[in-house]
Amino acid sequence: MKKRNIIITAAGVLTVSAALFTGFWIYQLSKPIPAGTADKVVVKPISSDIYSEEDYENAVNRVIDFFPEFENCNLLELRYAGDDKSLMETKNDQKTAPNEEIMVLHSDFYVNPESIFHTSNDAWNHDYTYKDWQWFLARTKDTDNWVITGYGYC
User: What angle (nearest 5°) sits at the alpha carbon of residue 153, between those of residues 127 and 114?
Assistant: First the structure.
């Protein structure tokens, strides 16, 4: 009789433990992957003969507003890529959009370690800092409406 009670108790403990673990796992999987954050980004000052501080600030704000799309990432730094890079991209773009200006920004961002409860479908290397990630922003000349036209390593 004692042996039977021990077996029943052990089976009950295992069943309850499995149910709790399964419930916890399902709860963790139902939580969304956190959006990218830019609340601690360091924005380096601009030095440009082409763009004003206001132009730069508008472009930076556009990237910061977009960054939550980069799930589980932290934007660390944003900086102007330089007049040469922006002029080269503007010149390349003049064939298709003659009244457009291009600004290129560089950034560094960190991808948080992947949770054991989430397997993401993204292409990021987790627990890794991406450096000199490029952002291409375009606007019609003499406006302040920057649009992100591309990003990545080029």
Answer: 20
